[in-house]
Amino acid sequence: MEQFVPFESRMVVMSIDNIDTDQVIPARFLKKTDMIGWGDLLFNDWRYESDGTPKPDFILNQESSKGRKILLAGDNFGCGSSREHAPWALTQYGFRAIISTSFADIFKSNALKNSLLPIVVSPEIHKKLFSTPDSAVKVDLASQTITLADGTTAEFAVDSFAKQCMLDGVDELGFILKNEATIAAYEASRFSTLNTLAGA
Questions:
Q1: N or C: which end of the chain has fewer CB within 10 A?
Q2: Phi and psi of 100, rounded to 5°?
Q3: How far lies 175's CA from each of 113, 118, 148, 183, in Å?
Q4: Nearest-angstrom CA–CA distance, 113 and 117
Q5: Bigger pLDDT: 116 or 80?
Q6: In the structure, how many helices (H) and strands (E) does the chain have?
């Protein structure tokens, strides 16, 4: 997993509420078995015509959106069915953070496990970001802050374990493997003192 470091980026703005995971990555693509190519399928039904040609008026198809790492979305992002493919598509496109006033719980959990930072802001900060859509925003996971172009700083909450994994650039298995020596020492000590004949 890519290590999460502070960065600054302009935003891709999608002022749509209740964007669900089937809009992020349509269900018909979930038969894919490999881990590559998901970024090309992101928002497929909004992004492409039925013959596969890009819709020029869709935000991701506009040259000004290229290379932007932050998605500014409406309320309740990631609702709908559970699928880890949604953060795969978002991160493979190039997004590192999504800003909204709320996220569906399962999407939020899946995003954090894939080094995609879901940032919940107040309605006031949300409105301010939409009022300056082409401005750059600084994202700092370590301090759990975003900084707007005018210098306004807003704090956000994040699960402490997920935060540490993202800062270290490891998934849950990687976190366990980093502590393999400590775990092995504990297990060795535990089995030497454990009385397996004792009653429950």
A1: C
A2: -155, 175
A3: 12, 21, 32, 12
A4: 9
A5: 116
A6: 8, 7
Where along the chain do its domains lie? Answer: 7-193
Residue with tokens 């996220």: 103
The one-letter amino acid code at 62 reads: Q
| Coil vs helix vs strand at 2 | coil
Radius of gyration of the chain (CA): 20
Query: What is the fold, at CATH topology level, of the domain defined by 7-193?
Result: Aconitase; domain 4 (3.20.19)
Encoded tokens for 30: 């979930």
Note the maximum CA span of the chain.
Answer: 72
**Per-residue model confidence as pLDDT tens digits over 95-104:** 999 999 999 9
As given in the structure block, the two tokens for residue 78 are: 């990631």
DSSP assignments along 11-77, one per residue: EEEE--S--BHHHHS-GGGGG--SSSS-GGGTTHHHHB-TTSPBPTTSGGGSGGGTT--EEEE-SSB
Q: Token pair of 135, please?
A: 């401005």
Measured in residues, the chain has a length of: 200
